[in-house]
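Exercise: predict the fold of this chain.
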Amino acid sequence: MTSSPHAGAPAAGDGPETACPYLDTINRPALDFDAPDHACSVTLDASPHIYACLVCGKFFRGRGRQTPAYTHAVEEGHYVFVHLTNGTFWCLPDGYEVPRSEPSLRDIGLALHPKFEPAEVAGLDGNDELARDLFGRRYLPGFVGLNNLSKTDYLNAVVQALAHVRPLRDYFLLAPNFDELGGGAGEAPAGGGGKRRLAGQQQQVRRLAYSEFSPLARSFSLLLRNMWSSHRFKSNVDPHMLVQAVSAASNKRYHVGRQAEAGEFLAWLLHQLHVGTGGSVVRPGKKKKKKKNRSKEGGAEGASDGDGGSIVHETFMGRVEITTVTKRRQRRGEGEALKVMNQVGTSGAGSAAKLGEEEDDDDDRAGSDDEATVERRQKNRAALKSLADEMVTAEEETVTETDFLQLTLDIPEKPLFKDKDGGLVIPQEPLVNVLRKFDGVSFSDVLASQQQPAQSKQGDGTVVSRKRRYKLKRLPNYLILHLSRFKKNGYFIEKNPTIVMFPVKNFDLSQYVFPEGGRDSVPSEAEVRDMSVRELKALLTKYGRSDLAENSIEKDELVSHAVDFVTTSLPDLLADKYDLVANITHELPVEVGREGKQRDPLEEGSYRCHVQHRATGQWYEMQDLSVKETMPQLIGVSESYLLIFERKGAA
C-alpha cells in the first residue's frame, strides 16, 4: 500500500520541536529560491508540498515514505529541508520539524520569504548602507540588477520604475502582513504614515488578504520584496516567477523571447495589478457632460463615474475632459430644408409649411383660378426636394470626462533629410511643447484609423474630420507620461528618435490643470490657529493626513501638526509641481536606421531605467544586470520613452 506524502512524519505543530544535529551540513551557496518553477526535480510536480534540500538546493515533493524528498534524504544523506510555501524546516527521514527559533536558519527564512515591518519600510528611502551577499559582493537594496530571460528587458525596466513609486512599493512590500490584519475595505498600512492626496482624490482602497491576490499580484509582491531585501544570498534577482505569471495572464502576449513596447506593457500590468488586488473589473466611467450640434439644436446628458478601489488607481489615476468636434457629410433632410425655405421666403405668401396640406379641392385645369397656386406648389416641392437631397457638412461637439492612468504624448515627426553618413539628424523638443496637447485650447486631429469605427456606427453621414481638445481636470500624485515613439506603417515599425528635454526637478504643470471648482488656497497660520478641532481634523483629512488628526490627543498638539503641515507640505501639494521618479529609455544600436540597414527598431533596441537614490540624491542607470551611477544632466537629454513624476509634497 502506498503511503500518503506526509505519512510517518509529524505535521507542523503536532509535537515539540526538536533540535537538528545536521544543520552544519547546509550549503548556502547552492540555494537558489528564484528558480523559475518550484517543482519536484523528479516528478516535475508543482504541488504546494514542495521541499528544497538545503544541502544540494534541489526541489522534491512530499516528506513521507516513498516520496522523492524522503528517498533523496536516504540515498544522498541530505537531511535538512525547507517547505517552499510556508517556510518550515524539516529533518528527513526522521520527519521532525526544526525549531523556528533556531538562529542559524533565520537568514534562510528571510531569503526564501522576505518580510518587512512598517518601520522597516518607512526607513527604506533613508537607507544608504550596502548589504553583502554570500559571495562578498556589496549591493544597495532596491538598486539590484534583474536577469534578462531573452528579450524581457522591457519588463525589467518597468518593474525597476514601479519599484520606486513609494505608495505602490510600500503596499506590495507589506502585502503579506494583510493575512494577519485581515482583508476588507480600508486603508492599507503604509510604511511612511498617511498618504497625502488632493481634494477629490480620496478613494477607499479595498485591502484583500494576501492569499486572495491573483498569482500575478503575488509574484509582483515577491519580486519587489526580493529587490528591497538586505538578506539576499546573491546580489541580483531572477524575475522568473513574474515572467511566467505575466505570460499566463496575457495568454503569451508578453512571453520570453518576444520583445514588446514598454508603454503598452505598463498599461496592461497596472490594470492586472488593479484587478489582482481587489479593484473593480469595470472600466473607469465616462461622464458625458454635454453634446452640442452646431447645425441644429439638441443634446444628451448622462453620467457614470468609475470606482478606483485599488492602490493602483489611488496612486496613478487622474481625470481629463475631452472635447470632440466631428464634421460629417450628410443629407440635409426635409425638416432642415423647410426651415431654410421659410427663412429665405421661397414660398412667398404661402408658407412652405403648407406644402403638406390637402390639395384635393385645387383645380389644376388650364385657365382655372387654382392654376397659379398649383404651379407655385409644384415649384416649391421641387425646391424642397433639391434642398433636402443636398449634401451639407454638419459639425457636432461632444464633451466627456474620463479617468486616465497615463498620458500619451505625440512627438513631432522626425526630419526627412539625413546626414552625410546616411543617419538621421536627431531634433530636440522641450517637453512643455509636447504637452500643448493638454493646454485646454489646442485641438489635435484624430487619426484616420480611429475614425473608421465611428463611421461604421453612425448612420447619419460620413465622418469628414474629427479633432479633439484635452483639458486636465485633476492630476494624480504620480503622473505617468508615455512618449509615443513607435509607429506602424504598412511594411515595418518606425521609431521617432526625437529627444524630448525635460527638467528633473520642479516641473511645473499648473498651466495645464483646470480644476472644477478652482484652485484651493493655502490658509494662513493665523487662520489655522483660529479653527476649531472639527475644522482642523477636516482640513487634515481633506488632504489625506487623517493620521495626524487621529494621533493628536490635545488641541494644542493638533494645532501644531496642522500648522506644520500647512506651512511646509500643503503649498507644494497644491502647486502642481513634480519631481522625476523614474525614466525609461529605449536605445538602438548605432547602425540601425542607416542606409540599407532597415531593421525592426523594437526588436533591435533595448530598454534601460533611471532611478534616484533619495538618501544621497545619486541617480542610477539600470539595464538588466548592469547597475551604474549616472548624472542627472544626461537623463534629461536621453531618448525617454516613459516618465514617472511625483508631486512635490505627496510622500
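Check your answer against the key: The chain has a mean pLDDT of 79.
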